[in-house]
Structure formats: C-alpha cells, structure tokens
Amino acid sequence: MTQLYRLSFTINRDQSNKVELIIEAIEPAPLSIARFEEPSGQTWVVEALFATPPEQNNLKKKLRHELGFVPPFDLAPLPNQDWVARSLEGLKPVEAGRFLIHGAHDAVAERTGKIAIKIEAGAAFGTGHHATTCGCLIALEHTLKTIPIRRTLDIGTGTGILAIAAAKMTKSKIIATDIDPVSVRIAKINAALNQVGSLVIPYLAHGLSHPNIMHNAPYDLIIANILAQPIIKLAAPAAKIASHRNITILSGLLKHQERAVSAAWRAQGFVRASRLVIDGWSTLTLTRIQGGNSLLTRTR
C-alpha cells in the first residue's frame, strides 16, 4: 500500500490563494490539493497529499520568497490505510451526464440509457465524485457525441475512470498514463472489471516522452485531469503528439487559473471551445486551430 504524506496550512484567505500556487509549483508534485474555509469564517485550510514529501528547507525558502515569511505548517505521513477504499464505503453512485459511476462494493443495476462504470476501491485517485472528474465526464460525453475519435491519451489516469469512459464510448484504443505505479495497477484492474481491458492500456510515465506514448501518436483526444501547473507544462509536448483535429479536455484547475492555462495552450495552437465550472473547479475543452502546425498529422 502506498504511503501518503499530508501537508497542511491554516492561514487567512489571501495567504491561502498564494500558498496553493506555491504548492502546485514545488517538486515533487502533489497528488492533490484542497482549499476550504473553516466554519468560523476566520481562517482557511490548505491541504496537499504527496507520495513523496517535499523537502522542508526548500518549501520554507519558497514560502519566504513569495510571502515574506513562513507560515506554520504540518507535514506528516498519513496512517497507512486504504483511503480510497474507506471513502468509497460511504459514497453513493454518482451520475455525470450519461455516465453512472459506482464502487465495486456497490451492487448497482445499470439504469436505462446510462453507461455504468464500476470502480474498484484501491490506493489511487478518481472515484467520480470530485467536481473535476464529473466535469471531465460531462465534457467527454459532449465531445464524443459528434466527433469520431480514433485514439485517446489520458494523462494522470488515477483509477482509470476517464480512460474507461472514453473506451466505452469510442470502442477505440486508450493510452492511460500515471506517475504512480499503484494507479497504473488499479487502472488495469478497473479496465478489466469494465470489460475494456483490451482497449485501455495503462503505462507508468512522467511527462509525454515515454516511447509508448510517442509510438501511439497522434491523438485525436487528450484528457488531463491533474493540476494547473503540470497542465501548463504539458502544452508544448502535447502539441507535438496531437492530431490536426485534436480535442483536449483539461481539468484540475480553479477558476482563477483558467487564464494562465488557456494562454499556455493558445500559444501552441489550441483555443477554448467550451468551459464548465462545478463547485469552483473548471473543466476546459480546447480545439486545435485549423491549419496549426502539428508534427504528427498522419492517421493510424
């Protein structure tokens, strides 16, 4: 079972915005970030989960540089429990567009007109209940209604939920990547559980330079539900493996981060086609500008 580490701050609202951006930019990258107001309304909490804890001296240096001081924080390992399994125990099935997401522990009959996706509990992120996952599923359904997709790349696949959804709708090959070996294993299990094991192919990969990612390019659809800073860094390499008619779905970003993300992808020839905001989290659907340069425009 993967050991996780939690970094937490209790600060005021303005500081919480800045701290969130600092955490996004540090190495190693966090697995997730959450920011919420305490019931008192006086303070905000920023929490991040890491597979490898950040080096504290470097963290303090960045905080001092950006804030002018180092606010108190707590960095500690979480008890070694299967957090996703625990969270799924109390979660009800969730609907996102035509998709019905439910845990493997939940005996859910498929509803008429719904595409059911069963997610096995495990130490990987993505249960379908978070606003970013729901946003991606809704954007995915809308995209696939009218646009034929031959090949898809799902970056930061987690439990494989988005890759499975794409495979069920397109009946085509899905390359799914993650930086966490546990996520890769869980994604394989879930793909098989949903009878799309032959279509969803998970790989352990950092960035987009993995030989199997390059070999399977170009991609008509790219999905990245991660965090804003990694999404910005992916714009240039993603442009090199996107087909000339590519659609890209991006999530894991807050509303105030949309402008920076859109600017980075616009510089690579992508424009925003639609935007969906759920609980303060944004999902952007981008299209490639017709006539834009693509290093891989062949069709497989």
Overview of this protein structure:
The protein has two domains: 5-77, 2-Layer Sandwich (Alpha-Beta Plaits); 126-288, Rossmann fold (3-Layer(aba) Sandwich), CATH 3.40.50.150. The longest helix is centred in the middle third of the chain and has 16 residues, at 131-146. α4 packs parallel to α5 (161-170). The chain has a seven-stranded mixed sheet, sandwiched between helices. The protein has a four-stranded antiparallel sheet with strand order 2-3-1-4, covered by helices on one side. By secondary structure, it is an alpha/beta fold. It has helices spanning 13-25, 56-67, 83-89, 131-146, 161-170, 181-193, 211-215, 228-241, 258-266; strands at residues 5-11, 32-37, 44-50, 73-77, 94-96, 99-103, 115-119, 151-155, 173-178, 200-204, 219-225, 242-254, 270-278, 281-288. It is globular and about 50 Å long. It contains nine helices and 14 strands. It is 33% helix and 30% strand.
